[in-house]
Amino acid sequence: MTTTVGYAWIQDALQAPDFLGAHKARLAAVQSLQRLPEGALLVPAKLAPGAHWLDHALFAIKHEGVRLDYLTAALRQVGPQEMEAEFLRTPNGAYVRKLCLLWEAAHQRPLQAVEQHPVAAAYVPMFDPAAYLTGASRRNARWRVDFNGLGDLAFCPVVRKTDAVAQGLQHDVLAHAKAFATSIGPQMLERALSWAYLSETEGSFAIEGETPSEDKASRFAALLKRAHDPRPLTEGYLIELQNATVSNPFDKAMQFRVEQNRLQGNALGAAGVTYVPPRPELCVELMEQLMTLSNHRPAGLDPLAHAGLVSFAFVFLHPFMDGNGRLSRFLIHHCLGQSRALPAGFLLPVSVAMKKHEEQYWQALTAFSRPARELCQVLWSGDDQYSYTWQPGEDLWFRYMDVTEGVAFTLAMAQVSLEIHLRQEVEFLGLFDDVARYINNRHDLRGPDLATLIVTIFQNGGKLSNNRRKRFADRVQAHVLDSIEAAVAKRMQGQPLTNTEDED
Fold first, then answer.
1. Among 144, 156, 151, 52, residue whose Cα is nearest residue 98
2. Rounded Cα distance, 103 and 84, in Å
3. How far is CA 402 from CA 52, 63, 156, 485, in A?
4. Of 231, 286, 301, 431, which residue is most buried, by most CB within 10 angstroms?
5. SS3 string of 435-489?
6. Model confidence at 501: pLDDT above 80
7. What is the pTM of this model?
């Protein structure tokens, strides 16, 4: 006898991939509902639902929140008579009204019972704003339900207000970024942003395991600078961006993909396939929905959370055969640029932070992609010959993808990129200016040599290596090298350099 209930029961009955992870409900010897720290819900026998799809759907939406994918899949198994009978038992019940709305959407037909017994209750939100990031209100007068998802029933990514998401939003990175830009002044800001654009380019390519050529890097940096242009996402614009990020002419797209793609690991054949994005026709449909969501940020949705949602949803849809990863990170900057929530031209080097936290990035990606891989059976017949067989109803898992981990990661990396990487660069630039001024007042040496030495010593923890000493021995005197080394080390320790000091 099964002990799973709610969404876990539906998952087992469907033989669906495990998108729930630790967040499963099961029967246990407890007196009341208990949520364990890892997310499991313990259910006493007295609250156990019946043995039917609708029983578990009702339990799930009442006690476990809203999972449109699981609910829609379950309701596809429920006939109209059963759904209407449940409605008539509690015609004003909030949870049954939500399910009736979802049932009609799933079956594309109306339930007749409501015509004879119109709902008289107050409107109820589909998603609890205390537990989810929500979108615009779409009131359904028939069921008195306010559908407030981040999209609509054709495409509605979900973001739960986990502790990580809540903490990221509370930090308000964008407000801190504005204050930071003002505090350092325009000249220092321009220098810091020059570093940010270069480093963001290098970081984004590094995540893909690439070292870009100078031409490739400059083209991507130019793209980043266009992120603030008031230009909405369209298929044409995304194609233009994709063409600018890839150098192989055979990889340049002319439209959203018309063939199945896949992500391949190190192993050959089907065993090496790590993720299969949605079939081409579904991908095109959902990309239209995603572009609308990108261009029309829901009122009240934090711009950075919106950027993370769009970025991760894009990479899961994978609309091109190549370049999707870099474009997904570009979309973070695009969404922020369109929001006007940052100073003009300001760039958070999120890819730098993501590269430094690659394991967390991988975890955020695989939270969805790993179970989604099970939706498609892949067969390999040699060379590049693959065939793909999808599970019935696979579209639901892409239409209602949970991107919570992606949004939480984006919020965290934005904070790291500002509070660590940008601030460290500004601190370094201040150190560089102080040391350069201090040395130039005492010694005469080439500007490029001094710049190289300051950077090298800083990167080596305040020490000049013997190899570097030998390289500069023919044009910089030993005591001058000592002076530069001492000055950098002193500033790294937080000590000032004074004009009265004489280290010669």
1. 144
2. 10
3. 25, 18, 9, 52
4. 286
5. HHHHHHCCCCCCHHHHHHHHHHHHHCCCCCCHHHHHHHCCCCCHHHHHHHHHHHH
6. no
7. 0.92
**Tokens of residue 350, six digits:** 């999120």
- The structure tokens listed for 309 are 């949602």
Q: What is the pLDDT of residue 201?
A: 93
pLDDT of 491 over the 50 cut: yes
Given a cut of 60, is residue 177 above it in pLDDT? yes
- Average pLDDT of the residues in 116-124: 94
Q: 412 and 397 in contact (C-beta within 8 Å)?
A: no
Task: Tell me if 416 sits within 8 A of 203, measured CB to CB.
Answer: no
Residues 6 or more apart in contact with residue 415 via CB below 8 angstroms:
168, 171, 173
Q: Supply the DSSP symbol for 152.
A: B
Strands 376-380 and 138-140: unpaired
Mean pLDDT of 72-82: 97
pLDDT tens digits, residue range 12-46?
999 999 999 999 999 999 999 999 999 999 999 99
What's the rounded mean pLDDT across residues 454-483? Answer: 92
Only one residue has tokens 């790590």, namely 274
Cα 272–Cα 270–Cα 246 angle in degrees, nearest 5 = 60
Q: Where do we find the tokens 């660590």?
A: 420
Residues 80-119 have pLDDT tens digits of 999 999 999 999 999 999 999 999 999 999 999 999 999 9
CA pair distance 435, 451, nearest whole angstrom: 10
Distance CA 5, CA 372 (A): 22
Cβ–Cβ < 8 Å for 378, 276 = yes
Angle at 364 between CA 321 and CA 327, to 5 degrees: 35
**Contacts (Cβ under 8 Å, ≥6 apart) of 190:** none
Burial string for 374-404 (b: 16+ CB within 10 Å, else e) reads: bbbebeeeeeeebeeeeeeebbbbbbbbbbb
Start-end of H helices in 108-213: 113-116, 163-171, 173-207
Query: What DSSP assignment string belongs to 11-74?
Result: HHHHT----STT--EEE-S-SS-EE-TTS-EEE-GGG---SSHHHHHHHHHHHS---HHHHHHH
